[in-house]
Amino acid sequence: MRVSLNCLRGFLLFAALGLAGLSTAAGARAPARAPADPADHAVKRCRSSSFEKKRTCYTAVLDERLAGGGAAAALQLLDRLVALDPDVRRDGHMYAHRIGVSALKSPSGVGAAFTTCTPAYQSGCYHGVIQSYFMAKERAGGGVTAESVEALCADHRETRKDLLFQCTHGLGHGLAILRGHDLPAALGDCELLGRPGEREMCYAGAFMESLVKATDPHHVVAREERAAVPKIKNDAVGHDHHGSAHAGTDPAKPSFRALDPTDLHYPCSALAEKYLIACYTIQTSAMLHHTKQDVARAAAECGRAPEKARTTCFVSLGRDVSTLAFGNNAEAVRLCGLAEAAFRPACHRGVVGAIVNMNADPAQGIPYCKAVTEAESKRACYAMVGQQALVLPAGETRREQACRTAEPDGLEACLGRSPAPPSGGL
C-alpha cells in the first residue's frame, strides 16, 4: 500500500483512430477502428514527463473503459496498464478505488457492484463501492443506524469470509468520508457493529481513510462523489475532494485534526485504548510522512509504541517498506533490517502481506520469503503467505499451490502446520 495514494479525475482520452479517408463504392467512409491493444495505446498516448499529466490521462482511460464495459473490464485494463507502466502500479489502489466509486449506480445495487471487484490493489475497488453506497444513502436522506451498518455486509458472513473482510474494512472508509473525516465520529459509527472482529476491521478502514485524506488531498474523486458533496472544488485534479463541510457533519464543529507533526504516534496517542491495534495498522504511514520516509526513525518509534500494539506497528512498517522498495526484494529485506532483531519478523510479515494483497496472489509472496535470510523471519514470512492466502477466494487451494513452491524449511509454516507468530494486523 502506498503511503500517499493518488487518483485524478479527467475526461475521455481514448481517441478513435482517424478516418481512413477512403470511400466505399457508395461513398461512405470506413468506421474508426479501436486500437488492437488498448493498454499499449494508452501507455503511448499518456507518456509524459509530468507525472500529474500522466495520472490524469490514465484516469480518463479507465473512466472510459468503465463506462463501456463496467468495473470488471476497467480492472482488467488496469492490470494491463500496471504490467506495461510501473508508474501505474504506484497508484494502483486509488485507480481501483475510483473504479469502485463510479461502478455503483444506486444503493440497491451494492451487492452486485461488490462482486465485480477484486482484492487487487489493496482492495481499492471494494473501498470505492462502500464509499459510494454511503454517499448515495446520505443523498437520499438516510442515516447511519445499527440496522444499516449490520445489514450492509450481512450477505458475506456465512458464505464469503474474504468479502466480509473487504466489506467491513470498506465500511470504515465510507463512514469516515460520510462524517467529513471526523475520525472519532466515524469510529463511533463502527461501534454500531455487534461483532468485535468486524468492528476492528471497520476501525482500521476509518483510520486508513483519515490518513489518506490528510497526506494526499489529490485522492480519487468521481462524478457520483462530486454530486454528493456540496462544497467541493471543481478543478481539474480534484483537490480537497471531500470538501470541508460534508453532509452528515456539523459545520460549526471543529474538524478532527488528523495528524500532528510533533507527535509521531498521533492520533493513536489521543484516542481510547480500544482503538490502539486498528490505529497502529496504519500509523507508520504517518510516521514516514512526517520524517520524509526515514525508515530507521519509524522503526525506532515503533519500538516506543504501547506494548500491545508494538508488533502491529512493525507489521505496518513492513507494508510501507514494500512500497518504498518498489518491488526490489533485496532492498525491502535491507530496510526491515533497520528494525531491532526481535521485530524484524513482524516487518517481513508486513512486506509479504502487502505483496500478496497488491497482487491478490499468494504465489507472488514466495520470492520475497526466499530473499529473507534470517531463519525466524523466513518462517514468519512463509506463515504470512499462508494466512493471507486464506482470505482470498479458493484460499485453501491457492495456499496449497503457492506453499508447494516454498523452500523446504518454510513449507510447514506456509501451510500452517507449525506455530505462527501473532498476526499483528496489517
Characterise the protein shown here.
The chain is globular. It has a domain at 272-426. The protein has helices spanning 38-46, 51-84, 86-90, 92-103, 110-116, 120-139, 146-152, 161-178, 183-190, 196-215, 223-228, 276-280, 283-290, 295-302, 307-325, 329-336, 344-359, 366-371, 375-389, 395-403, 408-414. It has 21 helices and no strands. It is mostly helical and 426 residues long.
Give a quick rundown of the structure.
The protein is 58% helix and 0% strand. The relative contact order is 0.08. The chain has 426 residues and is mainly α.
Derived structural class: mainly alpha
Q: Major sheet, described briefly?
A: none
Shape: globular
Low-confidence runs (pLDDT<50, min 5 residues)?
Answer: 1-32, 220-252
> What is the percentage of strand-forming residues?
under 5%
Give the proportion of residues in helices: 55-70%
Query: What is the mean pLDDT?
Result: 81
Alpha-carbon Rg, integer: 22 Å
Number of helices: 21
**Sequence of secondary-structure elements:** HHHHHHHHHHHHHHHHHHHHH
Cα end-to-end separation: 10 Å
Number of strands: 0
